Amino acid sequence: MHRTTTAESFHLTAWLPVILLATLVAAKLSAAGEWATGTRLQKRLKRPVNIVWSGVPLRRAISTLSQSQGVAVLIDRRVDPGRRVDILLSDVPLMEAMEQIAESQNQGVTMLGPVVYFCPPQVAARLRAVAESSKKALRKLPPEVRGKFFRPKRIAWDDFATPRGLLEKLAEENGLEIVALDLVPHDLWAGCDLPPISLADRFTLILVQYDLTFRVVGGKVYVQRRRGKREE
C-alpha cells in the first residue's frame, strides 16, 4: 500500500510580528513535546519539510524549526545569530534542510549525540573525532570516576549565562574540580536547552567553541588547548 508523507511547512519573513512568532513557537513546541532522541530522532531527521524564509535572523529561524520538530539545535558562538536567511526548500528531509541552511550561511552542521550543532565548517569536520578522543581517554579511568562522564543528563541555561559558570556548575554537580578555567574567555551566551547527553559531551560542546578540550586526572578536569591549534 502506498503511503503519502506530507511535509511540514515553515513560512517566516523579516516583518513577522514578534508576538505571532512567539505564539507559533509555543504552539509547535507544545505539540512536539520533549526533544527527540534515539530512533525517534532518526525518524524526525528524515521527515520532509517545506521552508520559505525571507530575511529572517538565523537564530529566530533555527529556533522555530528546532522547537517545531522537537529536535535540539545548538548554535556555536562564532556563528552570527543575526545574519539574515533567505531560503526556499520543498519536501526536503529535515537533516538535509539543516545542511542546506548551514551552507547558505557558509557554516557547517554536524551532530553530537542527539544535538544538531551549527558551527564553522572546520569545527563540524572534527567535532565527533574530538569527542571520541576525549571518551577514549575517559574509558581508562577508574570506574568511580569514569561513570560520571558517561551518565546522560539534560543541560539548560538562561540568557547571559557564562561558559565559565556552566563549566564550574558541571564540575560541582559531579564532585569534580576544574583546573585552568582562565583559558576560557569571559563571554555571555544566549539561553539553550538540550536533551540528555553525557557529561563528556557537555564539556566538549562548551569547550570546543573556544578551540579547547579537556583531560581528567583523578578528580580534576584540566581545561587545555586543542592539540595542534597553534600550528593552524
Summarize the SSE layout with pairings:
Elements: E1 8-13, H1 18-32, H2 38-46, E2 48-57, H3 58-69, E3 73-75, E4 84-93, H4 94-104, E5 108-112, E6 115-119, H5 121-138, H6 143-150, E7 153-157, H7 163-173, E8 177-179, E9 192-197, H8 199-207, E10 212-217, E11 220-225
Helix pairs in contact: 1-3, 7-8
Proportion of strand residues? 25-35%
The SS-based structural class is: alpha/beta
Task: Please identify the top-level CATH class of the largest domain.
Answer: Alpha Beta
Profile the largest sheet: 3 strands, mixed
Description:
The chain has 232 residues and is α/β, with parallel strands linked by helices. The model is unreliable at 14-32 (pLDDT under 50). It is globular. The strands form 4 sheets. It has a 3-stranded mixed beta sheet. Strands 3-6-5 form a 3-stranded mixed beta sheet, with helices on both faces. A 3-stranded mixed beta sheet has the order 8-11-10. It starts with 7 loop residues before the first strand and ends in a 7-residue tail after the last strand. It has helices at 18-32, 38-46, 58-69, 94-104, 121-138, 143-150, 163-173, 199-207; strands at residues 8-13, 48-57, 73-75, 84-93, 108-112, 115-119, 153-157, 177-179, 192-197, 212-217, 220-225. The protein has 2 domains: 8-119, Phage tail protein beta-alpha-beta fold (3-Layer(bab) Sandwich); 121-231, Phage tail protein beta-alpha-beta fold, CATH 3.55.50. A hairpin with a 2-residue loop joins strand 5 (108-112) and strand 6.
